[in-house]
Design a protein that fits this description.
292 residues; mainly alpha; 3 strands
Length: 292
């Protein structure tokens, strides 16, 4: 996909996410304050953190879509993985702080001053679940379209918010039925969802930075395509490595030894083109030819 189209779709998706999260966070914060719900206030903070996270994604996508230059001859795709890593750290801090407040309330042992949340907190939780789930599917669809790891991380950030709102909804329902402490328990559950999402996003971004190999099934598909190229007798070695949201392929093929250098070069060129045409994520394919 062209860098300009990649950046345009990513920016549009991110702007929609920012607007949606701003509206939700303000609504949930007001509802949490009016309805005296710690869980809803925590959920509002989670949505507000999504705004900052999406801005990080926007910066990462903008930089990663730049063309290769003298200082970065292989391109800038790994900046997107760095953005995902920063996003995971932001999530982890938010999750820890929300969980800490809930735990402090529980270990205090004095629940007499806790108030049962008002009905507005229930409404806010339902609105949040529907809104964040819609944002998850919208962002996920565009992330798959442009194959963006950072945008996909942002999509799962929306899903974690939807799940945390479900936790808040359950806690608020229990709290309104004579168990106000469950509102704090819901905050702890929310923090666990956030921390889980942070760990998953961090692992994904780390894989894109340390040259992790592609999925074995994908490697087998690549192998099959190479063997289908006329003139390829066998594959002596095949290596793949992730590079941000792209992939590099290094392959050693064997061709008949009596072929001319020009003929061998044509076979290598055919393999190169086949890989980059069939697998859009392949940024480059390096082919070495051995004689049978």
């Amino acid at each position: 996909m062209e860098p300009e189209k990649f950046s345009r779709i990513a920016m549009k998706t991110s702007v929609v996410s920012i607007i949606g999260n701003l509206l939700l966070s303000v609504f949930k914060l007001i509802a949490g304050l009016i309805a005296s719900s710690q869980a809803m206030i925590s959920d509002a903070v989670h949505s507000a953190s999504d705004v900052f996270s999406t801005i990080i994604v926007m910066i990462g996508v903008k930089v990663s879509s730049k063309e290769a230059d003298e200082d970065h001859p292989y391109g800038h795709e790994r900046f997107e993985a760095i953005a995902s890593g920063l996003l995971s750290m932001t999530l982890a801090v938010v999750g820890f702080e929300i969980g800490r407040k809930g735990v402090m309330t529980l270990i205090s042992g004095d629940y007499s001053e806790l108030k049962a949340p008002g009905a507005l907190a229930l409404v806010a939780a339902v609105v949040s679940i529907v809104g964040k789930e819609a944002m998850f599917w919208y962002t996920r669809a565009n992330a798959k379209k442009i194959r963006s790891t950072a945008l996909m991380a942002d999509a799962w950030h929306h899903r974690s918010d939807a799940l945390s709102s479900i936790g808040a909804l359950i806690g608020i329902i229990f709290a309104r039925h004579g168990m106000p402490v469950m509102d704090s328990v819901a905050s702890i559950v929310i923090s666990l969802f956030i921390l889980k999402a942070a760990i998953d996003i961090y692992k994904e971004s780390l894989n894109s930075l340390v040259d992790k190999s592609a999925d074995p099934k994908l490697a087998e598909q690549i192998r099959a395509e190479i063997l289908s190229v006329e003139g390829v007798e066998r594959i002596d070695d095949l290596k793949t490595r992730l590079f941000g949201n792209k992939m590099y392929v290094d392959v050693e093929i064997a061709a008949k030894g009596e072929l001319t250098l020009e003929a061998s070069h044509e076979i290598a060129g055919a393999v190169h083109l086949r890989i980059e045409e069939v697998f859009p994520d392949a940024k480059h394919c390096m082919v070495h030819v051995n004689p049978v």
